[in-house]
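pasting for ref
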Amino acid sequence: MKRLLSWPRWSFWTWCCTLLVASGVCAYYLRTVQAAGSASHLRDVFPWGLEVGLSALCGMALCAGGFTVAATIRILDLDSYKSIVRPCLLMGFLGYLVAFLGFITGTGQPYRIGLLITWNSHLVLTGAVWSLILYGAVLAVEFAPELCQRFGWREPPRLRWLGMPLLLLASVLSVLHQTSMADLLLGTPNKISALWSTPQLPFLFFVSAACAALAAVIFASWHTSIAFGRGLPTNLITGMSKVLAALLFFYLGLRFADSIARGIPLLVQKNDPQSLLFGLEIGLFFVPMWLLITERDPVNPRVVYYSAAMVLAALITNRLNTCITSVEAMTGTRYSPSWNEFIITYSVIALGIAAFSMTVKRLPVFSESQK
């Protein structure tokens, strides 16, 4: 007797992502439609919470870093690094998509989404929609040969010519988005601790975003190589680890020089949460830099992978410290995310990871044959 209902043969992590995304949709429905509980535990002193701090700020960092690294490789014509262009472009697009969804879910007004496709200068998110279209166009042009071949279409010859101008525009726009996020934080000087409130914050955000982009490519290459047998070659990972170490050294040098210039102590002298989280952030940036600098040739792939994971953790810690911990320290209040904030935030991130995995599985993202 045949079974009338059979479960899809998915992996454990596929089931986890599916259940998490479904839970996020249900939580968002309960928040916006049925108004079950408060939308968040935000107060007037906390303009940004977990949804914006984790999804939007970190997603925007991956977007700016990914498009900037890809544009740099294309402009300088670095043949040995052309294999990471496509992963960076895909990561940039999905990073911005996660950031966009983070803002949408943070507003709690889903009925305004339909207005975003129309041009209205009074709607800030309208520009975000057009930016998302631009980033999607960059990705479509990059994968046009494979997409046309997959669907049996003939590739338009002008798409190759559009690739570089669109990429340059996308990289500039992503950097401006990243800078504007830092400027918004600096616009409230009385609510941000001096450990993170600095005039150099936009540039520090940009450098840390470049570090996170390289780390995310290494991190993703490790997992896709295990899951699908598609990843970057070892010699390319070695070169990327050296560049990542140099960027981390440059970033920490900027942080220390800025702290000394503003009279901020470099060492943790108190046991309060603010100082401990600041020390954790600096440690997560310093340890991978030290590991990568002291690693001998040939590098150990596991050391590079763990270093990349720590850099991503450092980016998350930095962004959450900047928008939450620093505000807690200055205002003396405590921010406690609600249950739906947790579920919605991590469901948006799970959606981005699932989209990356599906794209890698169906298109040659980690491919050495670049245009």
